[in-house]
């Protein structure tokens, strides 16, 4: 069964406010039919700075916020340092799925997030593109992170899945379950 998160604005905002996330409502978010974002938020930072500032749905950010303690634990274990910045390619994009043109991407409603890399508090940058097959500790961190993410999101796609994800992790909270880590 796919996990669900609250899409109702009041319920989700209250839940997100209990997490260490600084966010504001995304007031000019798209509202038109197939590309409307449920409970849209602008996120400046969580336990790490979102780089750049993230525009997404509240349920997507809630799922990510609940995953972050795992990310920080793995970073300390594998890299000896916490994550200070999360680098991403964005959450919202009104488009069809890259692998299935008949379906709208989960990005079209801000229910997906593409993560491209991580900066540690001691100044290292680990990109998904170079780290996946790179230094032993960076590769271990990214591979562990992908596996762990499968317990927190409905879909996880990594460089282990296909060429389209050679430089980022895709995580989403859509209706299907798939672990491509
Ligand atoms: Zn994606």
Care to describe what's here?
The protein has 181 residues and is of the alpha+beta class. The protein has one domain (9-180): Muramoyl-pentapeptide Carboxypeptidase, domain 2 (2-Layer Sandwich). The chain has helices at residues 9-17, 58-79, 128-131, 136-149, and strands at residues 22-25, 40-45, 49-57, 83-90, 112-120, 125-127, 155-157, 169-172, 178-180. Strands 1, 2, 3, 4, 5, 6, 7, 8 and 9 form a nine-stranded mixed beta sheet that branches. β3, α2 (58-79) and β4 (83-90) form a beta-alpha-beta unit. The radius of gyration is 15 Å and the shape is globular. The two termini are 19 Å apart. The relative contact order is 0.16. The structure holds zinc ion.
Chart the SSEs and their pairings.
Layout: H1 9-17, E1 22-25, E2 40-45, E3 49-57, H2 58-79, E4 83-90, E5 112-120, E6 125-127, H3 128-131, H4 136-149, E7 155-157, E8 169-172, E9 178-180
Parallel strand pairs: 3-4, 7-9
Antiparallel strand pairs: 1-2, 2-3, 4-5, 5-6, 5-8, 7-8
Helix pairs in contact: 1-2, 2-4
């Amino acid at each position: 069964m796919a996990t669900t998160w609250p899409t109702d604005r009041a319920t989700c905002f209250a839940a997100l406010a209990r997490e260490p996330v600084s966010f504001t409502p995304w007031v000019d978010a798209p509202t038109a039919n197939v590309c409307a974002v449920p409970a849209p938020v602008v996120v400046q930072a969580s336990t790490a700075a979102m780089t750049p500032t993230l525009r997404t749905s509240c349920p997507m950010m809630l799922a990510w916020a609940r995953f972050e303690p795992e990310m920080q634990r793995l970073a300390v274990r594998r890299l000896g340092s916490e994550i200070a910045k999360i680098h991403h390619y964005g959450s919202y994009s009104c488009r069809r799925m890259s692998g299935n043109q008949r379906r709208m991407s989960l990005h079209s409603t801000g229910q997906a997030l593409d993560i491209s890399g991580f900066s540690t508090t001691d100044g290292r940058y680990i990109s998904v593109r170079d780290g996946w097959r790179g230094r032993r500790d960076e590769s271990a961190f990214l591979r562990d992170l992908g596996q762990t993410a499968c317990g927190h999101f409905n879909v996880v796609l990594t460089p282990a899945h296909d060429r389209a994800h050679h430089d980022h992790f895709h995580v989403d909270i859509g209706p299907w379950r798939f672990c491509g880590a």
